[in-house]
């Protein structure tokens, strides 16, 4: 499973699934977001489909970004069974991301 890109119109449906969904809020002009992208891709690849990874472009999806009060990017929110459980701003090392997901 590859990283999926959500829009305001598809976001709710994409996270309302059983299990863990990692959502990354980002923008194309954001330097730290560009640095975090390969970490997220490697994390998703190593998860072997057991974890869903979704990206939300804050510029193109203001409704979803506002709903989750995204004030700084990159921001990562971990959902379990459709409910947000954990929110972290900034670049997360892959190991930290793995630990956060494992603790949910």
TrEMBL record:
Question: What GO terms are given for molecular function?
Answer: protein-disulfide reductase activity
InterPro entries, per database record: Thioredoxin, Thioredoxin-like_sf, Thioredoxin_CS, Thioredoxin_domain
What sequence ranges are listed for the domain Thioredoxin?
Answer: 1-104
Pfam families membership: Thioredoxin (PF00085)
Q: Which SUPFAM superfamilies match?
A: Thioredoxin-like (SSF52833)
Q: Which cysteines are joined by disulfide bonds?
A: 30-33
Q: Does the keyword DNA-binding apply?
A: no
Q: Which cellular component terms (GO) are annotated to the entry?
A: cytosol
Sorted UniProt keywords? Disulfide bond, Electron transport, Redox-active center, Transport
Q: Which GO biological process annotations does it have?
A: cell redox homeostasis
Give the record's family classification.
Answer: Belongs to the thioredoxin family.
| The protein's name in its UniProt record | Thioredoxin
